[in-house]
Specification:
Blueprint (H helix, E strand, L loop, with lengths): L1 E6 L3 E8 L2 E9 L4 H18 L6 E6 L2 E3 L4 E4 L11 H9 L2 E6 H12 L8 E6 L3 E7 L2 E3 L13 E3 L2 E2 H4 L2 H8 L3 H9 L3 H25 L3 E5 L6 H15 L9 E4 L6 H7 L7
Parallel strand pairs: 1-4, 4-7, 8-13, 13-14
Antiparallel strand pairs: 1-2, 2-3, 5-6, 8-9, 9-10, 11-12
Helix pairs in contact: 3-9, 6-7, 7-8
């Protein structure tokens, strides 16, 4: 069995996997100081190792931002800046004496969907994770594409409107800035017929559509897989995102690029982290 961890800006998710089947899962809020983060992570991982003593053969970790995945070093995590310089592999290996692998959280998300979920049928596919920020990952010719510096796929940091990056216009940050409310609260209002809430989700979809159109024009994938917490309210923003994509994508054929909701939802990142030990991609 392998344990997968998805460390995000608001929560840490854990999934225990055996032969591609989920055995157990858990989640906790992400602390925002380094010392409390380490204590919380240790407690979370310990509960699995205590319960499944001798049966866990490795821990895979997905984290947002730019990482040195071979060393396990966090280089630049925009939403968890207190972890910059933190070595995840050394920390967990020292505490649990097991193999540890690390990768960007969006790549872990896309790995899960490629191996087991919505991306299985596609050779060239983009994964986009919408949550605290916006993460992205690329699979080209059935292989993860990292780029020369290991930071390929960071769609959230593409510039959409002058100095505004996509993740400021199509993530939790967008809703908090405009309304002081979470996306869940705004979605609840939208579903009760609140016109301002509906319009805000449509605007977020338009912004996302610009980012996706840029990706499709540049990469020309067969499909885009959308995941992360906000993708639970797919129906509120997808129509406007697709409309914008159709308007801005150059190739008539590429205008019909499939935009698909992830199979595993918010668990995809942790599942993908557990599959880092699978050498299939």
């Amino acid at each position: 069995m392998y344990l997968g961890l998805d460390i995000g800006g608001s929560k840490i998710s854990a999934v225990l996997i055996s032969q591609s089947k989920q055995i157990e899962d858990a989640k906790v809020k992400t602390p925002h100081t380094k010392e409390l983060f380490k204590k919380t992570l240790l407690k979370l991982v310990s509960q699995f190792f205590n319960r499944w003593s001798g049966q866990i053969f490795g821990v895979g970790v997905g984290m947002a931002g730019v990482l040195d995945n071979k060393k396990g070093l966090v280089i630049n995590s925009p939403n968890l800046t207190f972890l910059n310089g933190f070595n995840v592999i050394s920390f967990l290996r020292q505490k649990f004496h097991t193999k540890v692998l690390v990768d960007n959280d969006a790549r872990c998300f896309l790995r899960a969907e490629k191996l087991l979920g919505a991306a299985k049928l596609y050779k060239n596919v983009v994964g986009v994770v919408i949550g605290t920020g916006v993460g992205g990952a690329l699979i080209i010719d059935n292989g993860i594409f990292r780029g020369s510096a290991g930071s390929a796929g960071e769609i959230g940091h593409t510039i959409i409107d002058k100095n505004s990056a996509l993740e400021n216009l199509a993530s939790e940050k967008f809703f908090y800035k405009r309304t002081k409310k979470s996306p869940i609260e705004v979605a609840r209002l939208a579903r009760t017929g609140n016109k301002s809430a509906k319009k805000l989700y449509q605007e977020m979809g338009d912004n996302l559509g610009i980012g996706l159109a840029n990706l499709i024009n540049t990469i020309n994938p067969e499909a885009v897989i959308l995941g992360g917490g906000i993708s639970n309210d797919f129906d509120l923003f997808l129509p406007s995102a697709i409309k914008t994509v159709r308007k801005l994508v150059l190739s008539p054929k590429a205008k019909k690029t499939k935009i698909i909701k992830a199979k595993f939802g918010v668990r995809a990142g942790a599942i993908g982290a557990a599959t880092l030990f699978d050498k299939g991609i």
